[in-house]
DNA sequence: TCCTCCCGCCAAGCA
DNA sequence: TGCTTGGCGGGAGGA
């Protein structure tokens, strides 16, 4: 045995690649007839490095040595076996990890550039690859199939593929996302999660029927391989094993990430969905295991592509392997896509022409007759929500709805919803970007007089909210958003550390998502900010690195100019800190210099009052005198009412259309949980008249996922038990691991600091509190300030410019942990 | 013990 | 008919 002349650590991979049969760290045996291109000389090492960088050189070298290599390897192997004892030989073999598909895929990918120039097509010869990487052909197929599913390669002929690199990736992901939405993967995931909570996985026939019904829609639209225009699919077995192929599985797997929020998919759920789509073949364990195996194969390749990353989701039932999407965010429309592309350094700009888009959609929906992009499902949902909301407002008096424990159990989807509520906002973003016709339709469904149809000029003006930002922003300056219809502007005070997202505002659309604006950053870098919308929304598990994100509400504003809204802010600043404006321990330094008013919020335009005329509201607002019946609609009263937690009892939420901002609840501090309303909650202090505040509240809570659809929160809930908030401190931040814990108290505040027409709603996690009596965990989720009397909650200062309502949302304790390996 | 996934059999499909 | 492609599941390494 000869010692290599030089063997540097950095060349280890290359060496392994070249000679996988030799243990990389041991002295490789050397045949007596050493060829001139001995890999163990510095020169040959250099050659190998060059070769690794240049496929052409490598191929040439490879061809030259091809004839010798096989016999060499065999000889080497024999040589090793001869020189080493059985155990030693076994040890000398590369470990399982070194032979993993992921590593192999890394090697494979290293051979080709991410973005090959279109003029220079890279061809992949499977024989060469298998020889070069010293792997079985079979393994290469695994890799190639997944790459093919992403259109990173395409099959040219037998044994021959073309390397496209990542050029097609954005388009592919966009296409996959759309198909995923079409196939209602979100619902499927939710159905599966629901069943998980209800029963253990049990492949009985009854269950299969249930599954069958839940997957009915996807069966009808049995999906084949999603192609892109110009990237044809020429699989060898196009007709036969097409539907079970790794390609299709891979695409579906990716779709699951693209449609779900947060973009974490457990293998179990993915496998069940894939099984479900396979014509509901027996959900026996062997099939399930097989799917899981294949998903691991796919996941390994996707991980090598850095599209996903392995994590673990810990729930009550244990720790589950899952994967988290780490690839580029896919935004639904061209505009967003372009923004995304420009702000994603790893991707080249997407130049997607309309025609290619049409082609793409045709390719994506070949089996369906009508695949026009008519109305987005989220938009329909919104319309329904609004309709329901209005109906609720106009009909039955609000009475508490008790949710039984069984209901609690039957709402397994809900726990994830709160973690996903940023995605709801995102979803609305998508809806917002739909056509003007849709907007008008939506407007028509709402109060027409309150919501004037947007004119194009206004639209365009309003689509640039950032452009009207004050020229200079301190960390606490408001972001002014114009509102031409009302002649007033919206001002949003945000903390730069926790506000990252900005999107357009269109007044005709009643439920505009208006994510937080980074006051310091929005002017300079819109696209980046926009890009962050999705990446941060999708990752609700974030937290350790963003300790201040949700805590900015605890800070106070610092005003600069004397706009009306800012006067309000100033006023509030002068007020003593109440229980809702707390200082967070970890945030003390930043508090010294930067003060922020709202962490985020629901922008509630009071002009959209559905009951009573605007004038009426306005008058009453100014008068500061609100009848009980109108309390909910009417005026904000000046000043933040300082209220200790012990006094928090009631809340009144104006029954106006709520424009959700991006509510930046601390990802650590909340997690999805069913919310149990308290049957004891009474509304005796309110009149029996329909109380729109409950509708708005319900709408808002449903909308952000704090309560499931259909569940009603009483109009004027009164705190009867103190929620347990001791869990607030139990946020663990271990490196690489983020816990999302429930058992939190989320306090919320309604402000109207902007003007009489607008409300802001903000949520923030409560600061750690002393442990309180635990008996009411499941009975209370809601407590509000101001005492049992509704008016007292709304009354405060009477200068008619500001009012605050505060309350607390209790998230029952439950743990959902996502940890990264 | 369970997770992870390598490995290779073998059948379908293609040239 | 031989070769390519790839579904599939046993079973072993690793945590």
From TrEMBL:
Localization (cell): Nucleus
Ranges annotated as biased composition (Polar residues): 787-808
Gene3D superfamilies: Winged helix-like DNA-binding domain superfamily/Winged helix DNA-binding domain
Residue span(s) of domain E2F/DP family winged-helix DNA-binding: 96-165, 241-327
Presence of the UniProt keyword DNA-binding in the record: yes
Main location: nucleus
Family, similarity comment: Belongs to the E2F/DP family.
Highest taxon above the source species: Eukaryota
Record's keyword terms, sorted: Activator, Cell cycle, DNA-binding, Nucleus, Repressor, Transcription, Transcription regulation
Keyword Transmembrane helix assigned: no
Any Gene Ontology CC annotation: RNA polymerase II transcription regulator complex
Annotated GO biological process: negative regulation of DNA-templated transcription; positive regulation of macromolecule metabolic process; positive regulation of nucleobase-containing compound metabolic process; sprouting angiogenesis
Protein name from the UniProt record: Transcription factor E2F8
GO molecular function: DNA-binding transcription factor activity, RNA polymerase II-specific; RNA polymerase II cis-regulatory region sequence-specific DNA binding
Composition bias type Basic and acidic residues, residue spans: 539-561
